[in-house]
Amino acid sequence: MAVARGTIHGIVGENGAGKSTLMSILYGFYQADRGEIRINGERVAIRHSDDAIAAGIGMVHQHFMLVKPFTVLENVILGAEEGASLQRSAAKARGILGELAETYGLEVDPDMVVGDLSVGLQQRVEILKALYRQAEILILDEPTGVLTPSEADHLFRILESLKAQGKTIIFITHKLREIMSITDTVSVMRRGAMTATHPTSEMSVTRLAELMVGRAVELRVDKTPARPGAEILSVRDLTVARNGTERLKSISFGIRAGEILGVAGVAGNGQSELLEVLWGTAAATAGEVLLKGAPLDVSRGGRAAERRRQGIGHVPEDRHRHGIIMPFGVWENASYGYHRSPSFTSGPFSLPGRMKDAARELIETFDVRPDDPLLKTANLSGGNQQKIVLGREIRQNPDLLLIGQPTRGVDIGAIEYIHREIVALRDQGKAILLVSVELDEILGLSDRVIVMFDGRISGERVIEETDENDLGMLMAGVDQREGKNVTASKMG
Amino acid sequence: MSQLPKWADSFLVPLLSVLLALVVSGLVVLAIGENPLTAVRVMITGAFGSTYNLGFTLFYFTNFVFTGLAVAVAFHAAQFNIGGEGQATFAGIGAALIGLSLGETHWLLVLPLGILVAFLFGAAWAAVPAYLQVRRGSHIVITTIMFNYIAAGLLVALLGNFLKPAGSAAPQSRTFDEGAHLPRLDEVLGWIGIEAQRMEGNIMFFFALAACAVVWLLLWRTHLGFEIRAYGHNEKAADYAGISGFRIVMLVMLLSGGLAGLMATNTVLGQQHSLVLGFVEGAGFTGIAVALMGRSHPFGVALAALLFGALYQGGAELAFEMPAIPSKMIVIIQALIILFVGAMENIVRIPLARIFMFVQQSRKA
């Protein structure tokens, strides 16, 4: 791979294609077995991140490497202090930060505590850190995953100005639209190899997707208009407080049978709390939830088993931490959560034979690969793990399915499949609550959308009457059609 | 990353680690000025050389199976119970109450009651730290170890003030009457017509083997075991699946304490026939090493308990036969085994993984 100076070079590829490994080698976390890295024609040996920094490489990680209780200034000079006097390097850094802010439009108050900053600003601090260390090459790993559309736009403007100043940027993402809009050149990785490098102007989203997966993919979800039936779930004035702060502020909505309700919003605006309360693993402080007209106990946590019995299924947002037990076999995870159901038990004993049969069926129905129920779940790809979770919940035939981030960390080929399954479930007359931070996913799958901002519903839309811009504004808390849609939060 | 095949991971790595520990122990023996090979020979014959010696090895084996299983079971729910010592001590008080009061009946009555009461006493002693852990967040490592001291103090107080026969200076209860002595292994062998020399192990040996099977069944063949293992791997995922953490931790710790308590049945009713100060003699802590070495698997625990049983018995013979080697040598060996098996496993694992990778690659080529 070659990257030209002063360009923005995009790298795309499915999960596990080797993008992160490549970047880790560039930044000195891993060592390459063979091959060499040249910067400005000169061979460099990068054994440690110090070498990378010295070579002018800066990295903005997907998960920020910041000390939250420290101020912006302290974070920037951390590890790059000069001499014994902190004050002197702080004063110097303050000056440099001022210049950087002016040159690149990277304004951040240097005395703010990082933990109090928004995610977008924290990312800015990461970029400042790299620039302070005189990085000429900036690597950004999935930088927009946590940003609102407008924050992402701002980031792109910063990247443009960095480019104008002659910096080189390597931009890793799985969002093809971003590649198209910001990069000059794009490289596609597949199964650990760089399969293609092209000027972005010669590419299209469909062509890129094909290159990534190795076959033609259907990016749009085919679905007929919804035919909503009776109301399955009804949420009224639900409030959730955690550690004294209200995470959900009196929200109300309903979902009907045969309908997908999308919940859009930037991560951390109350969606996770909503899922937890509906699923019975967290307590609500006020409000009520009705399932098919009967109230659910939302006053306490630890009610997940009860929810399953009442006909709710749940594909959790973070499947690694919640949905499956990684070291367990596929067959054990295929009935996890339903392991006490009569079909898998006989008295106190579980029936491994029946569990394995069920796992084989699931593997076949949901095309899980490899098709071995005895494999350790951790050895499967993210997409196949997600198929196990989704398949497991769907097979229990729930009336209501809660789905959080169904395609997070899932490769394109599997996304296509998972989306089709969700729509098929809707067509069987199930009610589906879909929480996703991916606007494309919300727009492609939902019949109706509510947008969450700061624990409230900032707007509700029928899918035909909205678009990315409209939802993007709602995600930032601005309703452009004030008055047209009356949402519950405004009534309360 | 390179991975080892399962059999190598569960057998080869611990085996090589133990060998490494023994080699280092040999160096210590050499430093004392004795011949390590002679020492090994003395230890092996000391542990297995005669029926009499074997009897002692099996007696220690039984203790370590119970305390090892106690630690292993708790490990599966991610609870580190290092209070086996105290749980066994408290259970000993229960076992002694049975021994003292039912001495004029028959062992057929004493055996089930001795097992039941010791189990309940051990479980009760573990219940308090378990409850404090799940409801109050007091760390179970801290509370269980503190409960060891409380149990030890309680035993001193009981022996000194109530159980010590009048006029006796020794801190132990009176000897139980014949009816409360559990049958020794040689007596058990006698029932099936095998004449044997006196063997110090007793009928609890068979219960130790049964306990291994029961724990295995529980963990891998019941839905409760499934939940215990799920909780141990990932507490949050257990909550998602509707598994109550409170229930799992309480049940596991009660079982763990109860198993540790059975060690007291073996020692108090089966061998010493009286309640003696400090009768647990570190078996609770050895259980941690046994569980670590046995990979928290019941069969691994049985194998590790046999090794430690042999080390204890062989070590005692060693101190007798080669007086230059202090009896504390066994503690050094034990410590080295814990160090190599528990803490420094990668010394063996990483080179071994490289060898396996190399073999695999050359086989492909």
UniProtKB/TrEMBL annotation, chain A:
Gene3D superfamilies in alphabetical order: P-loop containing nucleotide triphosphate hydrolases (3.40.50.300)
Keyword ATP-binding: yes
PANTHER family: CARBOHYDRATE TRANSPORT ATP-BINDING PROTEIN MG119-RELATED, GUANOSINE IMPORT ATP-BINDING PROTEIN NUPO
SUPFAM superfamilies in the cross-refs: P-loop containing nucleoside triphosphate hydrolases (SSF52540)
UniProt keyword list: ATP-binding, Nucleotide-binding, Sugar transport, Transport
Domain ABC transporter: 1-216, 233-479
SMART domains cross-referenced by the UniProt entry: AAA
Highest taxon listed in the record's lineage: Bacteria
Pfam families: ABC_tran (PF00005)
Protein name, per record: Simple sugar transport system ATP-binding protein
GO MF annotation, one: ATP hydrolysis activity
Keyword Transport recorded: yes
PROSITE patterns to which the protein is assigned, alphabetical: ABC_TRANSPORTER_1, ABC_TRANSPORTER_2
Automatic annotation (TrEMBL), chain B:
InterPro entries, sorted: ABC_transp_permease (IPR001851)
GO molecular function list: transmembrane transporter activity
TM regions (residue ranges): 12-32, 52-75, 109-128, 140-163, 203-220, 240-263, 275-292, 299-316, 328-348
Topology relative to the membrane: Multi-pass membrane protein
Annotated localization: Cell membrane
One Pfam family named in its UniProt record: BPD_transp_2
UniProt superkingdom: Bacteria
GO cellular component: plasma membrane
Keywords for the protein's UniProt record, in alphabetical order: Cell membrane, Membrane, Sugar transport, Transmembrane, Transmembrane helix, Transport
Protein name from the UniProt record: Simple sugar transport system permease protein
